[in-house]
Design a protein that fits this description.
Distance between the termini: 48 Å
Helix content: over 70%
Structural class: mainly alpha
Order of helices and strands: HHHHHHH
């Protein structure tokens, strides 16, 4: 029975993979915009902006359990993207994608300026290892919100479908991303960027 549920949810992705790819494109364009904004600002204020971003995302100091902090933050964002997208005509997922993309591009370029590294290195070792499953989950959550929004208009919408998609497709990717971000990414940063 559980195997059938997983297979069913994976097959359901065919109904919204195009929307997930569109979400990926929105993120990439926003990331490029954030990157350009950081290039325009230059190195002069990079340290100030980087500290402000870290403070906004993490707070004053790192939490005791980094894995749970990362997982809780990403799980909350993804469930809100999925659920609120259904009722906001997809405005909420697009806003979240633009914000996260712009912030990522801005953050990477600031780190590149501060640590005298190529942006490509920051993306490759600092963001992509955990970013692939994390952003994949975000793109799938946003794409699924488009799909469930369509189902809502036809009267075939169920919350059990939304919860199934979240628990079977999105949450496992977020757990994987949090594990990588907690245990693998710091080692890669230390090895290749320090």
């Amino acid at each position: 029975m559980p195997g059938n549920v997983v297979v069913g949810e994976i097959k359901k992705i065919k109904h919204y993979y195009r929307e997930a790819l569109t979400c990926f494109a929105i993120f990439v364009l926003a990331a490029y915009g954030g990157y350009l904004a950081a290039v325009i600002l230059g190195a002069g204020q990079a340290e100030h902006y980087l500290a402000a971003i870290k403070s906004a995302v993490i707070g004053r100091e790192m939490p005791d359990n980094v894995f749970l902090f990362i997982l809780a933050r990403n799980a909350t964002v993804s469930i809100l993207v999925l659920a609120l997208g259904i009722f906001t005509r997809n405005i909420w997922p697009v806003v979240v994608l633009i914000f996260n993309g712009a912030l990522s591009g801005f953050f990477v370029q600031l780190q590149s300026l501060l640590f005298h590294r190529f942006s490509f290195e920051i993306w490759l070792f600092g963001l992509l290892p955990h970013g692939v499953p994390e952003l994949g989950a975000l793109f799938l959550a946003a794409g699924a919100s488009f799909y469930y929004g369509r189902l809502r208009k036809t009267g075939r919408f169920t919350w059990s479908g939304v919860i199934g998609t979240y628990l079977v497709v999105i949450l496992p990717l977020l757990v994987l991303a949090a594990l990588i971000e907690t245990f693998v990414t710091p080692a890669l940063i230390h090895r290749f960027l320090a």
